[in-house]
Amino acid sequence: MADVKEYPQRKGRASRMVRVAGAWTRVIVIIPVIGLLLAAVTLVVVGGIDTIKVVTGVLGVGTEPLSLKEVLVAFIEIADLFLLSIVLYIISLGLYELFIDASLPLPAWLQFNDLDDLKNRLVSVVIVVLAVLFLGKAIEIKEYLDLLYIGGSTGFVILALAIYLRGSHGAPEGDGHE
Fold it and tell me: What is the pTM of this model?
């Protein structure tokens, strides 16, 4: 067998290129981190403004008082806005922790070890958002058949996401569930 010749100069150059690419990844990932954080803050502000509008509407300040159904729908939509802002915030934190600084002091439930952790948290919150959206539609919709269609489709999406979550956690090997 012939001796394999090593080229230390090429090995060093390739290693440097990989390190530079890794450094640029951090710079590139900061863009979605900041964008998602700004989007989350924007939704919180919009939700706050909407909350003030609904409360003043309930009190009849400057407008005709809102009905109970209008108030319920409005507050459910506001809750949905706030939940969506939380989703964006969690994704922002997760990307930051995964790609930029893993030593970020976060509570245990917000710590991400890999991209799957981030996806699982995201899917969990999306399930709640879908349930809240359905609740808002259930109050608004007058036709029962429309409610059935929306409820069924929302239920199937939630079921699919729940199955994904169960599969992504995976059963321990050797427990007879293979």
Answer: 0.71
